[in-house]
Amino acid sequence: MGVYDNQSLYLALKELSVIESSKLDLAYKESVTNKIDFYDELIDRDLISDENLGKVIADLFKVPYANLSKEHIEENVLKIIPEVIARKQRIICFGLEKDGIKVAADYPVNREIMGFISKKTGEKVKVYFATKKDIDEAFSLYRKNLQASFDELLTKEILAASESKSSELPIARLSDLLIEYAYSNRASDIHIEPEKKTSVVRFRIDGVLHEVLRFPKNIHDQLVTKIKVSSKLRTDEHLAAQDGKMQLTLPSEDLDIRVSIVPIVNGEKVVMRLLSSRSRQYRLDDLGMREPDLKKVRDGFNKPYGMFLSTGPTGCGKTTTIYTILKILNVRSVNIASIEDPVEYDIEGVNQIQVNSKTSLTFANGLRAILRQDPNVIFVGEIRDSETADIAVNSALTGHLVLSTLHTNDAATTLPRLIDMGVEPFLVASTINVIVGQRLVRKICEKCRKSQSITATELKKFFPPDLLKKHTKNREARIYAGKGCSVCNMTGYNGRIGIFEVLAVTDAIRDLITSKADSDKLRDCAIKEGMSTLIEDGLIKVLEGQTTIDEIIRVTKE
Questions:
Q1: Whole-prediction pTM value?
Q2: Do residue 251 and residue 333 come from a single domain?
Q3: pLDDT over threshold 50, residue 165
């Protein structure tokens, strides 16, 4: 068995030359100074993917590497190791073969526990290395059926309450159970909706709502009251909308939860947004941009001044893209400040300001205050009005790099929109570096992905002929879909990926902006200069087997 520690990992990466030497040295120095695990520092700084880092660490341990996110783990195999032991020892049983059991661990040198498993099962144990992230996500496989767990807890507690002649239900436990299951199933939101006779719980997973639970209506009000107390909201207010925040300590992180409660016909509806650190553990390469787009994006945010804009509808990943870039720019020599509504994630080293209408701290006022704080980089959560647009553009003009988001249908529409907000065309032309238009589509599950052939005639129903000619030569093509398996909860999809169009502002685009050209002319010019549109990037990802035609149509139809 090999040896692994922070220094040996640093030396191994130095020898492999997979990370730029100066960035690797800085990350190692920061991890030592701040007493942070070097693995975490490398991932947080977006210097290497979790999978590639896992392979390097596995080599240091001298054991094989297991990518658990791509493994189909049968329930009977998983439960060879009880959940309590698996969590305590941070190990996952992921395979059973003729020559023994395959066990993954993020510290695979615990001979005692491996000996215990071998003795208990009578099988030889083959040890693999898996990263912390993979181990944490694999624990969620122990919990799949929320309805069964909820009913079991309810039945047990109601029975206990009747025996003790108490009418109290374990509402706090029910609330925690909901959040834990949502987290383990990678849900971004929990919807608790009262109906006439029951209450329905739905999880938003990969952008789509799934009903996961129904419970008796009499529990609903108690559950809402518990959530209000945890979120520091008024429990006696039932006719007005309320917003708050709560936190739940999970084994892998302290989870921040944004809470919204609104009165509807049958009672109060609750929506909880889970602000998990997992959803910001992205590298720029992981978002789904192809190399030509990545180059334009890197060129755009590496300039010392100007504007970088991410555009699209609500929930298309704009903030994730900007946060990923902020992580890259976040070094000690750079002063970064942000004004956001709300601040979704805390980024250490970034001065983040929360918009507060009660104290007149708007985007515009906050941005004015930031400019007096000597910033290098400014993130404006969203450009909503002409005042914010004007200050942001002028900030970019006076030597600051300004990152922001805007609600527009595509990249080209953004330019006339800013002019409509009252910004002079010559200012728009001279300040904007890059505009990213984006959408999020569900990725086909790699474990149950199957291919089929499709004719050019069928493809023409969904994609423009010129794009088909360019990418399929008008011949039959292969497309893919997921059959459904335990890894993807029988949906055929697992995770999400972006489709993008990246408009770099060139001299030709600047001339069109100054002459107040419409978005169609701007789009045509950008395409001539090499921009792939959202629909083209979508077609490429369909042909590569990353997503389905249905997903592209779902997010691009207007």
A1: 0.76
A2: no
A3: no
